[in-house]
Amino acid sequence: MRVQRRFNYTDRKKIRKTDVDITLIEQPGMPPRFEAVLRLSHLGLPGEAPVFIEAYQSEIMQRFDWGTVSDPKPSGDTSLWDLDETRPVRFRVKVTDPSGNYGRLLAAAFAITAKGDEPDEEGRQSIIDIKVRDLDEVPYRIEFPDGERIQLTLNSRIPYAKDRLIQDPVFQAFIFPAIIRETLYRIILKDDRLPESDTEGNGDDESWQGRWLIFAKRLYGDMEYEPSADDIDEFIDRVIEKFSNSYKLCERLVKRLENIS
Asked: Which domains can be identified in the chain, with CATH numbers?
């Protein structure tokens, strides 16, 4: 069952992401549903404290009753009817005060990813999500669909579009610099540095903006540097130059075109 409530975040405990396992399950002809395993007993919370799980995409959120701390389980269907199944989904877990202090949050976890969408084998969180769908005559589109990652949508009319992006130097040379430029412009000019969930005061510090700025500053060569609207072009040009040099984009592009001709 879905419910809508507002929470008070004062003095809450942190639920570690390792205490939460969420799995998305595809359903033919329906949106996916999810299963969740929560390990909350070590937190010292009241056993009768209500638990909720929220699935969200930016401003869209669907909330589920998930039993109590001593007996965490869904109270009904967990299908994600309110969300867009073509966009990345993240989850929050919240435990509230059972004593009648309405909305007081006892513990929470934020920006939980479902299994299969975790950081890669080197422990790095991906900073872009790649999707494929029909875009009519538009080859690709850079989108910002939720508070977690940028989405690069490739036109499904392009044969093997996703594989080509990963393997083809032609695709990489023309798309990757454009992604970097548009993303950094959005972050710096809009000062869009806080994840959507932070506007609720929940303290989540793993925004896509923050990960992108770390990525850009490493390429720029100065982790202490704070880019601004005044020097945005110089900053972005240098980041793209460093990225292109690192992956030899032009050299690989030339070799690929020579092989085609």
From this structure: 13-112 (2.60.40), 128-260 (no CATH)
